[in-house]
Design a protein that fits this description.
44% helix; 4 helices
Length: 81
């Protein structure tokens, strides 16, 4: 007897994807859902306390120069170039 295959919900899969650093658009394409639906799902995750945006969690994303500690962070954008 073999176990039935399991399938994560789109909600859980989306949260996992963005926690790995994927953009909302990339995660939506991977899950074959619209970006609007992905945004709505992430808004719900924030409302439930399951997620917070990197900008809200860290607070340094708006710095004029990206600190070295942010290297590799998918939310970090270079504004000093």
């Amino acid at each position: 007897m073999t176990a039935a295959p399991t399938r994560d919900s789109s909600f859980a899969s989306l949260l996992a994807a963005v926690r790995r650093g994927q953009t909302v658009g990339a995660a939506a394409r991977e899950l074959a859902i619209s970006v609007d639906l992905a945004d709505a799902m992430l808004d719900e995750a924030k409302r439930l306390g399951l997620a917070v945006s990197a900008r809200e969690a860290c607070g340094t994303c708006s710095a004029p120069v990206t600190p070295a500690s942010c290297l590799g962070c998918p939310a970090a954008t270079r504004t000093d170039e």
